[in-house]
Amino acid sequence: MSNPGPPVTRSRLAADLAALSVYPGGVLMVHTRMSALGWVVGGSGTVVQTLLDALGPDGTLMAYAGWEHDSYDIDTWPATRRAAYEAEPPAFDLATSEATRENGRLPERIRTWPGAHRSRQPEANVVALGPRASWIVADHPWDDPYGPGSPLAKLVEADGQVLMLGAPLETITLLHHAEATATVPKKRRVVYRMPLLDAGQTVWRTFHDIDTSNGAFPYGRVAAKFAATPGCGPETDAFEVIARAALEAGIGAADHVGAGPSHLFPARALHAFGQRWLEERFGAADPVADPAP
After folding, report:
1. Quick check: is 3 in a domain?
2. Which domain holds residue 84?
3. Distance separating alpha carbons of residues 174 and 195, to the nearest angstrom
4. What confidence category does residue 4 fall into, taking pLDDT thresholds of 50, 70 and 90?
5. What is the number of domains present in the chain?
6. How does pLDDT run across 86-103, given as a tens digit for each residue?
7. Nearest-CA neighbor of 95 among 194, 200, 192, 173?
8. Relative to the CA of 133, which of 20, 63, 153, 185 has its CA 20 to 30 Å away?
9. Domain presence at residue 1
10. Nearest in space to 174 (alpha carbons), one of 98, 111, 263, 92
11. In sequence order, what E strands does the chain have?
12. What is the full DSSP assignment across 206-260?
C-alpha cells in the first residue's frame, strides 16, 4: 500500500470539503492529486461521488481533461515517431479519447462517469457533470480556447469555485484564462495541428492559441521578484506565485482534505486578480522595468 496512515473515508472527505466551504448548487472546477489525499477508500470513484454529493443535485462538477494522445508539439518529436503518428493518426473523438494522464486520475474518471459531457477542443477540453454541464462545454472555441466563450470563461460567469484537492497551485488552469484575457501586447502564441474525427473521417485541423506550454509571458524575466511573495522564490512557477499572492490578498482558503493540503478559490475573484497581476507586470513595453514585486 503506497499511502500509509489512516484510511480516508467518504464521510471524512465530505466533512473536509464542507469545512473548506465547497457550497451546494455551484459550479466547481477540481484539480486533484490523489496520492496527496492519502489512502482513499474506493479511490477516485469515491472522490468524484463525494464532490457530487457536496455540490448536490443543482451543482456542476468540471475538470480539465485534455487528450492523452494529442500532437500539440509534434514538430519537436523524433522523425520516426512523427511519421508514424501522421501515417495513422489517432483522431480525437469526444466519446472515446482518453484524458491526459498529466492531469491525474480524476478527469478520466469524470469523463467516463454516467452523464458526463465533454467540450470539443482537443487540447483544452474539459469534462463536466451536472445540470449546467452541457452549457459549460458547449461551443468551445477552436482558437483561443482559454479565452472568451471557453468553459473557463463560463466558470467565471457562473461565479464558480476552483478546488485544488491536494494538487499543486501551479496547476490552476483558470490562470490560463487570465493570460488569455489580460490586456498585454506581444503575448507568446503558438500554432499547432491535431487530427479530429469528423463524420467518421480523420481531419487535420490547425489551431491558434496563447503558449500554455512555455508560458504566454516572459515569466523568467521577472522571476527574481517572485521571492517577495510569501512561500515563493525565484524558481517558483508563476501560477503558484499568483495563487499565493491571491491568498495573501484574502482571495481563497486553505485547509486539508484527507491528508492533502488543499485550496479553494472563488473563480471570478481569482481570474480578476490574475489578470491584474499579469497586466501590472507585462503590460509595459519592458517587463523588467516593472517595479511591482
Report:
1. no
2. 10-289
3. 26
4. low
5. 1
6. 999 999 999 999 999 999
7. 200
8. 20
9. no
10. 263
11. 27-32, 60-64, 117-118, 126-129, 161-165, 189-198, 201-210, 253-257, 260-266
12. EEEEE-TTT-SS-GGGGGGGGGGSTT--TTS-HHHHHHHHHHHTT-SEEEEETTE
* Helix 238-248 × helix 267-282 angle, to 10°: 120
Say which residue the cell 467540450 belongs to: 119
Is-contact 85 134, C-beta < 8 A? Answer: no
On whether the pTM is more than 0.90, the answer is: yes
Instruction: Say if CB 135 and CB 129 are below 8 A apart.
Output: no
96 occurs within a structural domain: yes
Does residue 230 come out as left (phi exceeding 0), alpha (psi in the -120 to 50 range) or beta?
Answer: beta
Q: Is 153 helix (H, G, I), strand (E, B) or coil?
A: helix
Q: How many CA atoms lie within 13 A of 256 on its CB side?
A: 8
Confirm whether 37 is domain-assigned. yes
Partnered with residue 62 across adjacent β-strands are 29, 128
Point out which residues pair with 189 in neighbouring strands: 210
| Average pLDDT over every residue of 211-217 | 93
